[in-house]
């Protein structure tokens, strides 16, 4: 029995102060479960409503991608400057320290490579997402690709079913088929299909024209991939234009780890995404950071 000595009568009932329930800060996710919202809150910064995800899952289709030959050397020092790490379970288990406390967006599908039928992927054992305590799972969705559209959409649906059961958000990754145009029209279709099938957020590419319409019609947040390596100032401009057009952040890989100074690039991208720093000022930040001796 609890020690009753010095027992204090409960009286702070806050009479007259109605209990508040704050609205959830990410679009389209208000009606999800507590676990999904809590995990999304670890990935997205509540103040800016945005995220800087560091993508290093390229090896699962591309092998030892330039800049990722040694993930331990290239990526581990950057993790603390990202809001979320996106990687495969193989890299996670082999080189990412389990003591790190950043949320993980785990790639949850695989099976093909750049040498064969890209995107004809299968879902992994989804319970692995729970075993490694991931905060989200990412899956390719190849809208419009005859060979893989059905299987990848089915993967997404299965992952969402599992995610709803256990409170884990799903990131739908729009995989552009070889014959598809990378334009706003295509990305409106692809992102919308991911969201309609239940993705909590969607990863896609920025388009020079009409990107704001891609964001507007997608009922959940959009993050952009960086794509192939650009000069640093151009990559910062890409991130800036995307968030100014409504993107909720970036999930960038090559433009970080293939940069001359990846750590400086992480800091500059973060300032663009969270503080709306202009590309010019962000490039100055990058250059200043680059000059700092390692
Ligand atoms: C591949 C991915 C990659 O993580 C993605 O393309 C991000 O990397 P990058 O900025 O290098 O394009 O999801 O499916």
N-end to C-end Cα span: 59 Å
Oligomer: single chain
CATH class: Alpha Beta
E-strand count:
10
Number of separate structural domains: 1
- The fraction of residues assigned to DSSP E strands is 5-15%
Q: Calculate the mean pLDDT score and round it.
A: 95
For the record, what is the CATH homologous superfamily label?
Answer: Aldolase class I
Largest sheet at a glance?
Answer: 8 strands, parallel
Q: How many H/I helices?
A: 12
What are the defining features of this structure?
294 residues; two-stranded antiparallel sheet; binds ribulose-5-phosphate
How do the helices and strands line up, and which of them pair or pack?
Blueprint: H1 34-43, E1 51-55, H2 59-62, H3 71-74, E2 84-87, H4 89-95, E3 104-107, E4 109-110, E5 122-123, H5 127-131, E6 136-141, H6 149-166, E7 170-174, H7 184-196, E8 201-204, H8 211-217, E9 222-224, H9 232-244, E10 249-252, H10 254-257, H11 262-275, H12 279-291
Parallel strand pairs: 1-2, 1-10, 2-3, 3-6, 6-7, 7-8, 8-9
Antiparallel strand pairs: 4-5
Helix pairs in contact: 7-8, 9-11, 9-12, 11-12
Bound molecules: ribulose-5-phosphate (5RP).
Ribulose-5-phosphate (5RP) is lined by residues 55, 57-58, 86, 140, 173, 225-227, 251-255.
């Amino acid at each position: 029995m609890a020690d009753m000595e010095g027992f204090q009568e409960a009286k702070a009932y806050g009479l007259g102060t109605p209990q508040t329930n704050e609205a959830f800060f990410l679009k389209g996710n208000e009606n999800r479960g507590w676990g999904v919202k809590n995990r999304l809150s670890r990935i997205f910064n509540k103040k800016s409503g945005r995220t800087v995800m560091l993508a290093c899952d390229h090896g699962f289709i591309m092998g030892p991608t330039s800049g990722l030959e040694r993930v331990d050397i290239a990526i581990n020092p950057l993790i603390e400057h990202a809001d979320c790490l996106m990687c495969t379970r193989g890299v996670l288990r082999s080189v990412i320290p389990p003591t790190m406390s950043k949320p993980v967006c785990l790639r949850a599908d695989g099976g093909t490579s750049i040498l064969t039928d890209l995107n004809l992927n299968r879902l992994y054992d989804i319970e692995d997402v729970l075993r490694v305590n991931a905060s989200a799972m990412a899956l390719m969705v190849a809208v419009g690709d005859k060979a893989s559209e059905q299987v990848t959409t089915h993967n997404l649906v299965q992952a969402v079913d599992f995610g709803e059961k256990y409170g884990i958000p799903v990131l739908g990754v729009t995989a552009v088929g070889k014959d598809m145009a990378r334009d706003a029209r295509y990305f409106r279709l692809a992102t919308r299909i991911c969201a309609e099938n239940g993705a909590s957020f969607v990863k896609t590419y920025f388009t020079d024209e009409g990107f704001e319409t891609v964001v507007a019609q997608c009922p959940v947040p959009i993050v952009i991939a960086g794509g192939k390596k650009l000069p640093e100032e151009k990559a910062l401009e890409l991130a800036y234009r995307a968030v100014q057009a409504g993107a909720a952040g970036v999930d960038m890989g090559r433009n970080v780890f293939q940069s001359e100074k990846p750590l400086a690039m992480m800091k500059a991208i973060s300032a663009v995404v969270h503080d709306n720093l202009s590309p010019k000022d962000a490039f100055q930040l990058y250059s200043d950071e680059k000059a700092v001796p390692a």
